[in-house]
Amino acid sequence: MRVEAVSTKDRILQAAIQLFVDQGIRRVSMDEVAERSGVSRVTLYRYFADRETLVRAAFFAPMEALEGLQRDLVSSDGLTVEGVLGAIGERIAEQPAIDLPVHRDELEKLYPALAAEYADHRDAVAHRLISWIFGLAERSGRLRPGVRKDLVEGVVWDLLVNPHSIPAVRESGIQARELYAALIDVLLYGMLSDDGSSRPGRA
After folding, report:
1. Which of 35, 51, 73, 107 could hold 115 in an S-S bridge, CB 3.0 to 4.6 Å?
2. Cβ atoms of 128 and 70 closer than 8 Å
3. Structural domain of residue 33, as residue ranges?
């Protein structure tokens, strides 16, 4: 009985997220969500009392997925920075692109208090994950001197979570997993080879 309840709620939530991504928040009705998820209105409202509650769950779902991933990884043995970033990329790639600026702007117009709550939660998740990754790199002796955590947290995190906000990325048609693999590779190793032959000042 417990498994069925979770499955139904998840099905409703995933249907709502996809509708919000495809049509925008304002245009999606509760009736459409019920139809897309294959449940009755009564069942829909049993899990989500009103539209704002459903919108909140839709926006918070990707961050909650990352929080769940961190809890799972913390208890794992043999963690590496590459492994953690790879797992984060995989988890993000599985999520619908609801965190695009266009959707955040619409959320702010429709539900300002919810938008502020979401922004605070998103920043808190980023801070915890980045701090944890930095700590892992430092403990393993692999953190490069001079790397600024605040810049990584403020710039790189947004790129990892939301690369499709960049027009060139959207237009490239690159698959999500390939995109995140490339981003993580550049984040970890940069763009230059190790021999330094192309560095300024080399003959």
Report:
1. 107
2. yes
3. 1-49
Q: What single-letter DSSP state applies at residue 163?
A: G
For residue 117, what are its two tokens? 């709550």
pLDDT mean over 127-135: 86
| Contact assessment for residue 84 and residue 66, using Cβ atoms and an 8 Å cutoff | no
Count the alpha carbons within 13 Å of 170 in the hemisphere toward its beta carbon. Answer: 7
pLDDT at position 160 is 66
Give, in order, the Cα–Cα distances in Å from 45 to each of 12, 15, 24, 40, 110: 10, 14, 21, 9, 20
Do 102 and 138 belong to one domain? Answer: yes
Q: Does 65 share its domain with 119? A: yes
Non-local CB neighbours of 182 within 8 Å, separated by 6+ positions: 174
Contact indicator for 87, 73 with CB cutoff of 8 Å = yes
Domain of 83: which CATH number? Answer: 1.10.357
Q: Which of 10, 25, 49 is the last residue of a domain?
A: 49
Phi–psi pair at 142, nearest 5 degrees: -115, 5
Q: What is the pTM of this model?
A: 0.75
What whole-number distance in Å separates Cα of residue 49 and Cα of residue 77? 41
pLDDT recorded at residue 77: 76
pLDDT digits (tens, 9 = 90+) for 65-107: 888 988 888 887 778 888 888 888 888 777 777 666 678 889 9
Residues 37 and 69 in one domain: no
Task: Kindly report the number of other CB atoms within 10 A of residue 169's CB atom.
Answer: 15
Domain identity same for 170 and 110: yes
